[in-house]
Design brief:
Elements lengths: L9 E7 L2 E9 L6 H11 L5 E8 L5 E5 L9 H10 L5 E8 L7 H19 L2 E13 L4 H10 L5 E5 L2 E9 L3 H10 L4 E12 L3
Antiparallel strand pairs: 1-2, 2-5, 3-4, 3-5, 6-8, 6-9, 7-8
């Protein structure tokens, strides 16, 4: 099953023992986008001591990368990565910028701080589940298109309508679980249709 991703970019902030931590969650298509995000964070916060990061990419989260950026080994990048992986998310990067406040934190405190603030940013970013889907295409006379479109929208679908010289074409992308109901509705309306499967649809998720 394809992993979920975040719905939007988001940030979170916390102060621990006078050190300030600001986390930002970003949606990415590949891990190659991480360096540019890190450079942008350094430009935006030139006075920060550390810009630690982690990212996960690929349909099943098969690619990952993390960086402690000068913090003790595995106290920053690893807990950030664990926050992403623990939510079974992919195509996500989280950066945590730290301003040192003069009080040294122990390794356990660092792990908790980085993991917790990364988790807060991910929670603020929301969640989109990715489900298998299909595109259904139907053809109707132009005069019938508004009525058919209205019926489909009333049933909770979002058809896209294209008008041409020979008639109107309606396309709906639908979760595979709802495909039989859509096919039945089109049959009732007398609309001939074809189906192309193998797509992925993003829907709001929980958890």
């Amino acid at each position: 099953m394809v992993r979920a991703t975040i719905a939007r970019g988001a940030t979170a902030e916390v102060e621990i023992s006078r050190s300030r931590f600001v986390a930002s969650a970003h949606r990415i298509a590949a891990l190659d986008e991480l360096p540019a995000l890190i450079r942008a964070a350094r430009r935006a916060h030139p006075d920060a001591r550390h810009v630690c990061s982690a990212g996960v990419a690929g349909p099943h989260g098969e690619a990952s990368r993390s960086n402690d950026d000068g913090e003790p080994a595995s106290t920053a990048g690893a807990p950030i990565l664990a926050a992403i992986a623990g939510r079974e998310l992919t195509d996500v990067a989280v950066l945590v910028v730290r301003w040192f406040g003069g009080v040294k934190l122990g390794t356990g405190e660092l792990v908790r701080a980085y993991g917790s603030i990364a988790g807060d940013a991910l929670e603020a970013a929301g969640r989109l589940e990715r489900v298998s889907a299909s595109e259904v295409t139907g053809s109707v006379p132009i005069a019938d298109a508004p009525r058919v479109e209205h019926v489909l929208r009333t049933a909770g679908h979002e058809p896209r309508v294209a008008y041409g010289a020979g008639g109107a074409e309606l396309r709906c992308t639908v979760e595979d679980a709802r495909l039989p109901a859509l096919a039945s509705l089109l049959a009732q309306l007398g609309v001939p249709s074809s189906t192309r499967g193998g797509l992925v649809l993003e829907v709001p998720g929980t958890g």
